[in-house]
Amino acid sequence: MNTYRAAQVLTPNGNFEIVDRETPHPGPGHVRLAVEACGICHSDDVFVTGGLPGVQFPLVPGHEVAGRIAELGEGAQEQKWNVGDRVTVGWFGGSCGYCVPCRQGDFMVCDNIKIPGWAYDGGYAESMIAPIDALARIPDALSAAEAGPMACAGVTTYDGLRRSSADPGDLVAVLGLGGLGHLGVQFARAMGFETVAIARGAEKGDLARELGAHHYIDSTAGTPVADALQALGGAKVVLATAGSSEAISATVEGLSHRGELTVIGVSPENFDISPLQIILRGRVLRGHPSGTARSVQDAMEFSALHGIRPVVETMPLAETDAAYRKMLSGSARFRMVLTTG
Fold first, then answer.
1. Average pLDDT of every residue of the chain
2. What is the tens place of the pLDDT at every residue in 132-185?
3. Is residue 185 a contact partner of residue 209, using CB atoms and an 8 Å limit?
4. Model-level pTM greater than 0.70?
5. Do residues 228 and 254 make contact, with C-beta atoms less than 8 angstroms apart?
6. What is the 3-state secondary structure (H, E, C) of the chain?
């Protein structure tokens, strides 16, 4: 019997344990991956805590997966996939194909979206089964540890910016310099925007400029963030990556006329934004969920072309629990990635 190792939690909020499982074979329209790396995303916590309906335990999370195709299910080769192909699987882990959004071609907001770790076992493991519509090809320039985070954090910031209303030369601000924000700044600079990084503390200014920001705003300084943005001419787009509704709300008055606040950072608190702040200046508040496998591939190819990389800390699969706790503590710089080598 062939087996593989997986990191699982038995109960909500439980600790991770390493177990041996029997290696499954992929069904029609699926492949089996030999996982090489898997990023640990903060949104994994909603599964580990049992915070979403239908989460089943034991649970193997992980939706920033990078590896190689090890086995093809029926129909996979007809879709141009082959054993040995390097691929990622991200938050978009497949769609149903029949709901209204899918029939309109908007697969990212599928009513029955398949998220690894929720719809099926995720990538905190040596092996994983995934549907072929979730696969994105990894460019040769990216390692597995670099490609994994691109399947969620990377594509979310990349697509959030490229689908925004900003044109090259416009002032674009990235709120937060963490796991999402450090990629958002790099993408914004490479897309030709006049890039502003916003974070807490003057000491982060050097990091912001190293990542490519033209300007840095310390949100703890005496000048309100909105005033600082307006002093630069007003932001056409603010990409809000920070998980703080208070910090996000504080940027609204820093938007230009018809400016756009694109929210990708998750916070349980409500925004403190009045309708007049949006209406009078024709501003837009937009949520952005992530990106399809095609968008993941676009983000990776763009990153390879422009030298954009996530800053990662790697730990072996055997130390999943420690790596996960470090992510939760906020001390990771900037993405924790599990490796199976």
1. 97
2. 999 999 999 999 999 999 999 999 999 999 999 999 999 999 999 999 999 999
3. no
4. yes
5. yes
6. CCEEEEEEECCCCCCCEEEEEECCCCCCCEEEEEEEEEEECHHHHHHHCCCCCCCCCCECCCCCEEEEEEEECCCCHHHCCCCCCEEEECCCCCCCCCCHHHHCCCHHHCCCCCCECCCECCCCECEEEEEHHHCEECCCCCCHHHHHHHHHHHHHHHHHHHCCCCCCCCEEEEECCCCCHHHHHHHHHHCCCEEEEEECCHHHHHHHHHHCCCEEEECCCCCCHHHHHHHCCCEEEEEECCCCHHHHHCCHHHEEEEEEEEECCCCCCCCCCCHHHHHCCCCEEEECCCCCHHHHHHHHHHHHHHCCCCCEEEEEHHHHHHHHHHHHHCCCCCEEEEECC
Task: Identify the bridge partners of residue 40 per DSSP, sorted by sequence position.
Answer: 336
pLDDT of residue 1: 59
How far apart CA 139 and CA 258 sit, in angstroms, is 37
Q: Which two tokens stand for residue 172?
A: 């674009």
Distance CA 295, CA 297 (A): 5
